[in-house]
Amino acid sequence: MPETDKEKIFVSPSEIARQREYAELAKSVLSARFSGEPLAFVRTYGCQGNVSDGERIKGMLRQMGFGFTDEPGNADFVIYNTCAVREHAEDRVFGNVGALKPLKLKRKHMKIALCGCMMQQEKVVERIKKSFPFVDMVIGTHTEHMLPEYVYRLYQSGKKVFETPDSPGVIAEGLPVERDSAFKAWIPIMYGCDNFCSYCIVPYVRGRERSRSLNAVLDEAREAVAAGCREITLLGQNVNSYVGGGGVNFSHLLREINAIDGDFIIRFMTSNPKDCTSELLDTMAQCEKAAKHLHLPFQSGSDRILKEMNRRYTREKYLDLVRYARRVMPGLSITSDVIVGFPGESYDDFQETMSLADEVKFSSLFMFVFSPREGTAASKLPDAVDRGEKIKWFQELERMQAKNSEEIAASMVGKTFRVLCDTDCRNGLLSGRTEGGMTVTFEGEADMVGNFANIRIDTNSAWSLKGSAVK
Questions:
Q1: Which fold has domain 3-163?
Q2: For strand 452-460 and strand 161-163, is the pairing parallel, antiparallel, or unpaired?
């Protein structure tokens, strides 16, 4: 994207100020309409990027005077932040939106809003209008920063708001954030994607690739650390493509965040292998706060299928990256994504996926049976293998991965790891993650939550570890 176009993607400070004014107007309208604090229910589906968007949505709602509830039946304003990556996610949204109808019949003043990736698809919006006429607001991914204006219009006029303009995408800085955790921060560093993998809907619903400025990301990271965050996760559809202006790349950004004073750990996702470099892997090795965990989706072990997917790397390049990463970071934990049953994939192609997964020995593997997304190139490809056969392949991979995960977990028994305690499971049990992303449960006090602890691993299973705090 040329520099002149990049300048146009930033929402102007005056527009952000205008939205703050709308937030105050909405607050006035709501205070006149409700005797107490109106309650909002926010439900986010999908990836960590959506979770981050949800935190900004909550921030804007708080600015408008809303409190929050965990029960949609108690809410005055319900908003679903949707995901379009897989058909199953869309089906869940439609099912849950349908379940709101009887709630709205009981609470006639309830307003229902939908936003996120699904709403950037014309066919979805038309289905909402036809099948879910009780929905009051639909907004696309490119105008979520205008939520205060839309809420004001909805309550002031009583008329529905549907705003889903097509756009290459924008960046809106200065939005309030209501974080879900007091000690974990999701920080987006870029939005959209230029890769156009043949199976992926993201470039069509999230817009073109665009990066936040280095200073904006650093400011948010410093604020998070100052507020007590112990874990910062940098987000982007392909963080390796980050360009923060003046030639600043992702490795530079990682070093800058690593230099921030404080006791915290840095994670990031997702990395595309085609843009993963030895410079980035060296930076991870040299930055003491960077978690020695790499999520590197490979999607298929077959070069023929990778070409059909438009992934633009080969099996051998992927394996070379893994070998180099483990050479500079012994003990590195690697996780990945894989698609089983891509159109035209044969059992021989699938066996190449099996052999790659077995060679790499992933700590965990996120596996999906291919789900066609309308509007992508892959949705038009002929597919001779039925879903039942693909599920058998999936189960074969699942069994092998369970064996590999269990072997990795068994190798950790007797060793001590630094763990961020993130959950109070009650009954004297806490839960946390190792630097490599493995979940551990252990006995401890509730005041350990949000802090690091040294945990010795006592027993293991394929998907979890049990340990003891080491004083």
A1: Rossmann fold (3.40.50)
A2: unpaired
